[in-house]
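Continuing the batch. This is chain 6 of the set; chains 1 through 5 are on the previous pages. Same settings as before, nothing changed between runs. Recording input and output for traceability.
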Amino acid sequence: MTAPLSGKTALVTGVSRRRGIGYAVAVRLAQLGASVFIQHWRPHDLDRPWGGDDLDAVRTGIRSALVGDARVGDAEADLTDAAAIPGLIADAAALTGRLDILVCNHAKSGDDGSILDMTADRLDAFWDTNTRSTLLLTAEFARRLAPPQSGQRRPGDAVEGAKPYAEPTGRVFWMTSGQGHGAMRGEVAYATSKAALAGVTRTVAADLLDLGIVLNTINPGPVNTGYMDPDTADRDSSGLDEWLRTTAFGRVGVPADPAALIGWLSTAEGAWIVGQVLTSDGGFSL
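Output for chain 6:
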């Protein structure tokens, strides 16, 4: 099939810049036939060296990738506000009347530091954005797909599904980083928030699989979304080109690299891969 995700609807969070991974994922899912609903939070970008993008151009780019009668929608939402999450899931499902794929791509970056710089507020900011919101989005997504439960269910009890499943009832993707492959100096709060997601992937995947929902976590490795460009870098990039020449491919990743993996995993061909933390980094972790 040229459009294996035809009839499916995906919510992709953190889609506000055409240089971003979220945008590449949204475009790839659209190319595969899905309707796509995107979440953005422009204030984060405006506070970073790369600045904000033209949201109309973002929408147009995704719309141009749609296949057939697939649709695109969007909403601005601050995912650190737990109260905003049910509404976002509901809005995404309302685009077509269903929601099949959740890609939690959003993340806070910048304003981090070493362990000597850690404060409760700094740690909370990264946790609330990167970790808590991802878990709450996943919970809300799963509740929509869960069948009515018989009897009184206590927290922690297994959820009754409708096994056997001929195919997944839904897909969830989390994003982690390279914290498991080496030190991420100067990024203690970010690495902590991402390590939590990687560490709990199998636990949550086991719960979701009772409902037929497949969860995998993606580590895309170093992907230049603007933070490595000299004019918009948020860190010292001197010597980058020389170092890259010593790596396997001689380059960092581009957003289309992780987007291709997520797109494939969203199809029937990727259905048997469950509960994995998948590193797709062009060999950087080697």
